[in-house]
Amino acid sequence: MTYEAPDPHAFFAPLAPVMGEQATAAIADRYRAVSTQPDHSITAERSAQKLLGVTPRTAGQWLADIDL
After folding, report:
1. First CA to last CA distance, the chain
2. Distance separating alpha carbons of residues 62 and 60, to the nearest angstrom
3. pLDDT at 2
4. pTM of the prediction?
């Protein structure tokens, strides 16, 4: 499975009634600009999991840990 980022303008469109068209367009433009930066992607070597030396819990493990 591979993550594919949604279009920022489509993603933030539902916020327009609350924040206004201009604000949501500015936020979406910023997300689009950041996504073009060469070091924006998180590689396996730069992941929090690798850097912190931890393995994320599965949803089942997390639920078991909170007694659900």
Report:
1. 28
2. 5
3. 81
4. 0.52
3-class SS of residue 5 = coil
Contacts 24+ apart (CB under 8 A), 26-29: none
What are 7's two structure tokens?
A: 């279009």
Find all residues with CB under 8 Å of 25, minimum gap 6, and list them.
Answer: 9
> Sign (positive/negative) of CA torsion 32, 34, 39, 45?
negative
For residue range 10-68, what is the model confidence (pLDDT) as tens digits? Answer: 999 999 999 999 999 999 999 889 888 877 778 888 888 999 999 989 999 999 999 98
3-state DSSP: the chain helix, strand, coil percent, rounded to 5?
60, 0, 40
